[in-house]
């Protein structure tokens, strides 16, 4: 930090960093200047002047020029006293405005939510009505969705004729995106679409596990976890044709655990030559209704991306923002300058120099 008597404190670059606590005080500076000008105008006719003898005028031209220079300096010097008075008062007003530098530190805290992605990897997901394939489009959009989340725990369940938990709830989004990148329609050999089993796997990953009464710390942790929102996002292109659990029963179970379900039907609702390529919206709509979520249809990559964006907007965890301010005041520097100028004014006023300059 530079010393108070440095002219750096009056530089424009330094003033750009300041924030004034009382900026209205600066408006008094022009008022002080106006009062000094009015006083000078009213008192100039009644001012007494003492004629000074500067010695015999020399006949040499150089001596005459020197006398004129001394008279010019004395003429300018008469403004020194009001100038010191104005500068001192202006510096005190700047100190009253309280220049300061404020450094803000923002701290965002979010508990996040729990999200389980249930991805259909059956053979019908290799259909190309959504380019390049249904599964590839869903995989790419799901990766973008994961990258856009913050402080959320996200897990992954894949299903075809059977359902497997591929990744537990985690905040390691890079690991999760690697799992999504490896998805293909050959990961599960059993044919069919086990939507009910997939929901059951997701619920099992998200359901609460009550802590023992003796462990109070764990009980508090589990109580905090129970307050987190829980969401299942299920992507499929077909009806439930396999598995041991009915999807309606699984959706009712999710409702009991306060888990919301969003379902996305991927693909055109038209049958093709391939078996089980028809998209059945009925069961997906019922699941979303029971799970207090929403049903979406994605007929192309753009619509699929829009669906995930809508879900991302609907499921946002509250964020608490704390702002810490580090305030450094610099009014003392300008107060020192003001006192210095006023002392200079007092010195000029109460010594012979003041009389000489005024005359």
Automatic annotation (TrEMBL):
Domain VWFA: 114-311
Domain of life: Bacteria
SMART domains reported in the protein's UniProt record: VWA (SM00327)
Gene3D superfamilies listed in its UniProt record: von Willebrand factor, type A domain (3.40.50.410)
Keywords, ordered alphabetically: Cell membrane, Membrane, Transmembrane, Transmembrane helix
Listed InterPro entries: UPF0353/GerABKA_families, VWF_A, vWFA_dom_sf
Statement: the UniProt record of this protein carries the keyword Cell membrane: yes
Transmembrane segments: 20-42, 79-97
Protein name: von Willebrand factor type A
